[in-house]
Automatic annotation (TrEMBL), chain A:
This is Transcription initiation factor TFIID subunit 9. Keywords: Nucleus, Transcription, Transcription regulation. Gene3D superfamilies: Histone, subunit A. The lineage of its organism: Eukaryota, Metazoa, Ecdysozoa, Arthropoda, Crustacea. It is found in: Nucleus. Coiled coil: none annotated. The keyword DNA-binding does not apply. InterPro entries: Histone-fold (IPR009072), TFIID-31 (IPR003162), TFIID_subunit_9 (IPR051431). Belongs to the TAF9 family. Residues 199-229 are annotated as: Disordered.
Automatic annotation (TrEMBL), chain B:
GO terms for molecular function: RNA polymerase II general transcription initiation factor activity. It comes from the Eukaryota. It comes from Daphnia sinensis. Residues 57-84 form a coiled coil. Keywords: Coiled coil, Nucleus, Repeat, Transcription, Transcription regulation, WD repeat. CDD domains: TAF5_NTD2, WD40. SUPFAM superfamilies: Taf5 N-terminal domain-like, WD40 repeat-like. Gene3D superfamilies: TFIID subunit TAF5, NTD2 domain, YVTN repeat-like/Quinoprotein amine dehydrogenase. This is Transcription initiation factor TFIID subunit 5. PANTHER family: CANNONBALL-RELATED (PTHR19879:SF1), TRANSCRIPTION INITIATION FACTOR TFIID (PTHR19879). Residues 100-229 form the TFIID subunit TAF5 NTD2 domain. Residues 1-40, 277-326 are annotated as: Disordered. GO terms for cellular component: transcription factor TFIID complex. Its main location: nucleus.
Amino acid sequence: MSTKIPRDAQVIQAILKDMGIIEYEPRVINQLLEFIYRYVTTVLDDAKAYANHAKKKGIDLDDVKLAVSMQMEQSFTSPPPREILMEVARSKNSIPLPSVKPHCGIRLPPDCHCLAACNYKLKTIKKTLPKSSMALSGSTQGSRMGMLGAGRAVHRPNSPAVRVTTINSGTPSTPRPLVKINAGSTSAPANVPKIQIAFPAQPNQPAEKMDMDARGVKREREDDDYDAA
Amino acid sequence: MEYSMNQLPQAINSDAKTQSSENQNSEVASDNSAGQTLDSENVDSNTLAAVLQFLQKHNLKGTAEALKKEARLKEDQLRDAQALQVDSEATNLLSSYKSEGDPNAYEKAYLSYRRFVESSLDVYKHELSLVLYPLFVHMYLEMIYNNHEAEASKFMERFSIDQEDYYQEDLKKVSFITKKEHMKGSDLMENFKSSQFTVRMSRDTYSVLKRFLQDKNQSIVMNVIQEHLYVDMYEGVPRNKAQVESTAGAMEGEANRQVNKTKIYYGLLKEPDIQLSVVEEEEDGEPGEGGEKPKKKKPKKDPLLNKKAKSDPNAPPASRLPLPDLRDIDKLEKVRALREASKRVALGPDSLPSICFYTMLNCAETVTCVEFCEDSSLLAAGFSDSILKVWSLVPQKLRAMKPAEQLADIDKEAEDVLVRMMDDKTGETMKVLYGHCGPVYSASFSHDRTLLLSSSEDATIRLWSLQTWTCLVVYKGHIYPVWDVRFSPHGYYFSSVGHDRTARLWATDHHQPLRIFAGHYSDVDVVQFHPNSNYVATGSSDRSVRLWDCVSGNCVRLMTGHKGTVSALCFSTDGRFLASGGADQKVLLWDLAHGHLLADLPGHTMTISSLAFSRDGTVFATASLDGSIQLWDFFRMTDESSLEDVNISGHNPDLLKRSNVIESLRLARYPTKATPVMSLHFTRRNLLLAAGMFEG
């Protein structure tokens, strides 16, 4: 069966041959075609925008050149030039190595740079619950979080009052729960460290209730954060 | 005695690149008196703008004013010129290529130089031929810069095949630069213009070269050599073909001797005195010994360890690199390691190690890295779908830590609290770690087996806890794929290398790197720590191997000689030697004391993937993607070569390249069916473990 290869694909084959690539899977041509199409349309779109900005009738060579160089800086970056790297390295290496403080347990950066916060996962609820907002006052370890289900929260005296808002109902409203619980950390390796959960706005999500898996002290890694099931 | 042709421009070229290029600019401008029409005005104002910029940068206002008045420059002309200047340093440096020469003259000049090389005496021929490649490239770039594209492409076509094989890849990249606009963006261009290609020549060869250049009035060749080449001259006999071949191949020529002069501490750190406590004695099963010193234990240990007790002049002082103190767990681990070491099999030509090969089946070619932990109880594999799997190689399963409530219940003062805190119910032979967003290119276990590092194409490095089986930290710093990451043998520090041409030194408790090792000309592909943790070796796609000092961040050794990307590195057990394997299928052995090449081991037919030294330093194993493992007699290798007898010119004349000697050093060669070997590891008892992915 002789299939006539479209002209664009033939062009790509010629380019590959020019660059010295002799062995390639046939799907590579399709991938390159897609890429070329996307790249060229992006460049031409940008060139059109620049031409319009300069109040020109049609696209000019300069417009295209500018569009290409913009694309280069954005998508096809290359590693920083050697001089800059050497300069950065020189300034970084002039700081002497910090001394190692005695410490037991795993040496980790400050908590804000670690993934040591508690995990949470969302759980859909079947029946609708009235909107409520609760201010969480200082509590001891055993306190429950009420609507949020099983959880543990320790309130640090100096932190602002914690607001727990759950938005849920049958209506697909934007849930905006802000749960900020600052927990004092104890020393054992597995414990309840600072828990900061800020749930980003998620429009058009089915009503979901925040499930504070504070017992996720065990920190089992949930691969999917949103358990929509 | 060192001498460089470029002394004058180099002396000026202290800080301001603009000034030096401006010098070159004026040199070139004055050279070409003919054909300066409109160009000359621009050149001059450009030059002036460059000088003014330099003066302003250094706050020499008075001089700047005086210059402006004298030159009587119009304000807008100046502004235009300055705008051009601000554009990029690249323009300034590129303008060193500007010349009004006749394009056809380049071809003639190149041909005449080549004829000269071929007709010169054998003694000088090999060193002179080293100049051909940089000469060719720079001539080509000059022609492109001056818009002689047709001649340039003819020039490229005609002479590129003449160049050496190992330069063909670079030449291909250069050949894609066909227009002046391409020059600004290209990586390779930056390498060529920013640093000078180093060529090592003996004084005699150099005088022959100078004579040729002056006699035949070869101005073009002379210009190129003056501006773009660095001739490292040495006293002594010119090298023969084999010697020249052995160190050629790197992207920027050979290493000049100054680089390798720094003294490095290649000895091992002094083993700390482990005071045996009551606990350990109970484990020993000899309750009778009352708090005895380690000395009693020493006769049981390897004689090698006894030697370490004396101070090694080449060992770094213990305080040179800040390291964490040994915890009790670490001390127990050390004792355990020593006990295992005492049961070690002594390897040699008549006692070859047994090899245990772990073949991964049904992977669909997705395994990207395999790694064994130090005591051989864990195996980690990274996959191209961004997951990491860890297997237990011993009967003990992998258990996770108990949840917090249960942990609160256990007795913290109990003897085996570390065992009790693990939850038996979660024991599995294999655990999966999710987290990366791209193929995992490298993994590294910490010495105490509680942490695992992994690096990936998503430009992050992740630290995983092997007790809770979760990710603890994400280290962000590289902006391009990270090709390799390695924990230091003493823990706490780790090093990563990536596509951004840098190697970085991190500590687990800092979210930013502590050191940045910049200097390679292309991606850095492998990294390895020295056994004393003070130095880091990196191998790169620019075909060179560099050794960096962790404390100062400087490059202390530059070793060229590979003709392809360096793909594997391994330090010898005593820290004196470094073995490197590359995509050129060669394994090179370097003596770190001077940075010399000791041996070139052939035998593999594909890229070298892994190297390993036995625990007692007698046998050396190499593995490659062709699916074979070769064993070498390292003891004899380093015994035979005269390590102290080094030629004053800085290269070891007696390379172990004589094939009969090499063949006798190879102890065995074991091929597999169809499994490229990805990793090698000697256990504490000198059993060789290997892992690979079956490609049926």
